[in-house]
TrEMBL record:
This is Dehydrogenase. It comes from the Bacteria. It comes from Micromonospora sediminimaris. Residues 131-240 form the GFO/IDH/MocA-like oxidoreductase domain. Residues 10-122 form the Gfo/Idh/MocA-like oxidoreductase N-terminal domain. GO terms for molecular function: nucleotide binding.
Length: 344
C-alpha cells in the first residue's frame, strides 16, 4: 500500500531491460513522482541508478507505492499485473498488455473490478507527429479517409524472445491506426514468415478494414537493415505522411491546377498539389506518456490508453495470427467503444 504523506507519488518499476531503463530514466526526473524501487532479479548492471534494485515484487510492495510501471517480459505481465491489482496498486503496463487474449482479459477484469487506474504503454499515441495528425483528421482536413498504410521495419532486437513481430511491433500499428482514425477493425487478413530461425514470426503483411470502410495495410518486420516507422493516411483531399522516428508530419494536397495537355485532360484522378511540412513541438513521447499516467493516478482527467483498449489491440493481433495460420479473412468481434479521455 501507499506510504505517501501528501508529497510526491511513490512509484515502482518492474523490469530493467532496454525499455525498463528508459522508464527508470523518465521516472527519476518526473515532476511530482519519486522512484522508490525497481524489481529485477539481475540487479543494476549499470550501477547508475539511485533507486534500490530489488529481487522480487514482494519487497517493492513492502516499500509502499502509489503505482507501478510494468516493463518485464510480456510473458510475465499477467502474473505481475494480477499481484499488483490484488494489492490495490495502479499500473502502467508496457505493450502488449499480455501475450494472449485470455491473459489480457484477466488483467482487465482484475483492475476494473477494483476500480484501479491502469494503462498500457502504447507510446506511439504520444508521438508528436501522430498527435498532430489526429487533431487534423478530427478537424476534417483530409475529408473522407480512404486508406491507412503503415511500415514498421528494422533489425531484429535481441532483447525480444517471448513473442513474435505481430505481438511486439504490429500492436503499435494496430493501436495507432484505431486511435488516429477513431475507428475499430472489423476484419483482418495476414501472412507471416519466419526467416531468422526463431520460434516466432519475424515478418507480417496485413490487409484490414475499419468500421467505416477504410482500407488498412501494415508491413512489419525484424528482417530489414533499414529502420522505418511510417504512417500514410490518404483521403479525398490528399494524404498525410507521419514519420514517427523523426516526429515529422507532412501533408501532400491534391492539386487543383487545370491542364491544356490533351492526354491528361480526360484523367479523372488526382494531381500533385502543394506539400506542407508542419512545424510541431517535439516532446519525448515516453515523458508525455508518464505525465498522462501520473495525472490519471492523481485523479485528474487524463488521456491514457486503458487496459480495455489494450485488450482490443491484442484481440486484433490474435486475429492476424489466426488468419496467417488458417489462410482466411478473420472477422474481429466488435469491442466496447470508449473515449480515451474518459479514463481517469
Amino acid at each position: 500500500m501507499s506510504a505517501r504523506q501528501g508529497g510526491k507519488l511513490r512509484a515502482g518499476l518492474i523490469g530493467l531491460g532496454a525499455m525498463g531503463r528508459n522508464h527508470a530514466r523518465v521516472l527519476s526526473g518526473l515532476d511530482g513522482v519519486e522512484l522508490v524501487g525497481i524489481v529485477d532479479p539481475a540487479g543494476d548492471q549499470s550501477g547508475l541508478l539511485r533507486a534500490p534494485v530489488l529481487p522480487d515484487l514482494g519487497e517493492l510492495l513492502a516499500l509502499g507505492i502509489d503505482y507501478a510501471v510494468v516493463a518485464c517480459p510480456t510473458a510475465l505481465h499477467e502474473q505481475v499485473g494480477l499481484e499488483l491489482a490484488a494489492h490495490g496498486v495502479p499500473a502502467l503496463i508496457e505493450k502488449p498488455i499480455a501475450q494472449s487474449v485470455e491473459a489480457a482479459t484477466r488483467l482487465v477484469e482484475a483492475f476494473e473490478s477494483r476500480g484501479l487506474v491502469a494503462g498500457v504503454g502504447h507510446i506511439e499515441r504520444y508521438n508528436p507527429a501522430l498527435q498532430n495528425l489526429r487533431i487534423r483528421l478530427e478537424a476534417g482536413e483530409l475529408g473522407e479517409v480512404y486508406q491507412v498504410v503503415t511500415r514498421r521495419q528494422g533489425p531484429f532486437p535481441h532483447r525480444i524472445a517471448d513473442v513474435g513481430v505481430v505481438m511486439d511491433l504490429a500492436t503499435h500499428d494496430i493501436d495507432l491506426t484505431s486511435w488516429v482514425t477513431g475507428q475499430e477493425y472489423v476484419s483482418v487478413s495476414a501472412r507471416t514468415v519466419s526467416r531468422s530461425g526463431r520460434l516466432h514470426e519475424d515478418m507480417v503483411a496485413v490487409v484490414g478494414q475499419l468500421s467505416d470502410g477504410t482500407m488498412v495495410n501494415h508491413l512489419v518486420n525484424w528482417l530489414s537493415p533499414l529502420k522505418e516507422r511510417s504512417t500514410v493516411i490518404t483521403g479525398d483531399r490528399g494524404c498525410f505522411v507521419a514519420d514517427t522516428l523523426t516526429a515529422d508530419l507532412t501533408f501532400y494536397a491534391n492539386g487543383a491546377i487545370g491542364t491544356e495537355w490533351e492526354a491528361l485532360r480526360a484523367f479523372r484522378g488526382v494531381a500533385e498539389g502543394d506539400m506542407v511540412r508542419y512545424a510541431i513541438p517535439k516532446r519525448e513521447p515516453l515523458l508525455v506518456e508518464h505525465e498522462r499516467f501520473r495525472d490519471a493516478v492523481e485523479g485528474k482527467e487524463s488521456d491514457i490508453v486503458t487496459l480495455r483498449q489494450g485488450l482490443r489491440t491484442v484481440q486484433v493481433a490474435a486475429g492476424l495470427l489466426a488468419s496467417a495460420t488458417d489462410g482466411t479473412v478473420v472477422a474481429v468481434a466488435p469491442g466496447h467503444h470508449e473515449e480515451t479521455a474518459a479514463a481517469r
